[in-house]
Amino acid sequence: MFSLLWPKPISSAELIRLESHKYSASGQTILEPLCQIYWSWLFQFVPPWISPNVLTACGLLTNLTYTLVLAYYCPTAREEAPSWALIMSAVGLLMYQCLDSLDGKQGRRIDQDTPLEELFDHGCDSLSMVFIAVGTCISCGLGFEPNWMFFCSFIAMFIFFCSVWQTYVSGTVHFGLIDATEGHMVVILMYLISAFGGISFWQTTSPVLGMKPYIFPVIGITLGATYSSYNNFRDILKGRVKDSSVANKSVLSPGINVGFVLTLAFIVFKRSSSRLFENHSCLYLLTFGMVMSKLTNKLLIVHMTKSTFPLVDTSFIGPILLFLNQCFDSFIDEHILLWIVLVFSSLDLAVYFTRASRQISSQLHLGIFTVSSVNHTTHAHHN
Hints:
By secondary structure, the protein is an all-alpha fold. It has helices at residues 2-5, 12-18, 32-43, 52-73, 83-109, 115-139, 146-170, 180-197, 215-242, 253-271, 276-279, 281-305, 317-327, 334-364, 373-382; strands spanning 25-26, 173-174.
């Protein structure tokens, strides 16, 4: 049963093609040159024996920790979080941003900038994006506006998926002038504003502007998503003209999967008799976030192995169960089923990611959380 649900993520032929994969990136964000000065200073304190994946995992755990604390205090994103929790979140997100930069620097320093590190970096980033989206909604009390909360959260997950989709098509990661670095800085500022002014600040009508301040993050996310979507789909549709990706397959196939999941998420949100999203906002976003992260990780593997993106995936099981339950008048309590789907979707993602990492590790003769003795010796010799 286990092997039927979770077969080996990567075939033997795909593993062979993986060996020839090289990471490629282009572009620079507005704040990156300034941040690089700080990151380079921090990097001198990173010992050469630490694996890049350890730094990546620490960044993910940091995001997970503060997001769970916020979700505990604000399960519907309408409650007031303690100031210390919001300050912790601001510090945590800054730590994650630094670690996300340092892991790449470390990979290049020890000559371990490999597909394994790429999967860990971008795969963990896809999950961190879910946590950041949840934390952002909590920080400005967006639970009072469920439609906007749904839109902002899922558009953030979709944009990250599209960035990997664009890479699958072009073979190169493209960074825009405004990208994740700038987004993180804005969210950190939002955490600090809420820590000292209260989350209720965002829902108080300004006497000067005559509107609630939460609208500004919403406008920012909408404009950022529009800008990012334009850049990503411009490259994706360029590939569509050629009708090929790096895998020489249809470039539009990933859109079918993500479109199916987003459609089910929206239907379940709107058709719920128990107002599932409104009453359990964070749980809902975390559940569907696991599904979106699984699809993103699968697209990463497909990109690196130059393969076809499959139309069917086990990650569909959870959203389909929630939809079918509604079709039968919710004979299972929707809240209970949402917890079940969260557990299954998290397990589905964990199994896939773990098995894929182990396969790549074995194929490339690399330790997942260790630095190979050859790389370590070479670095010591250079020093």
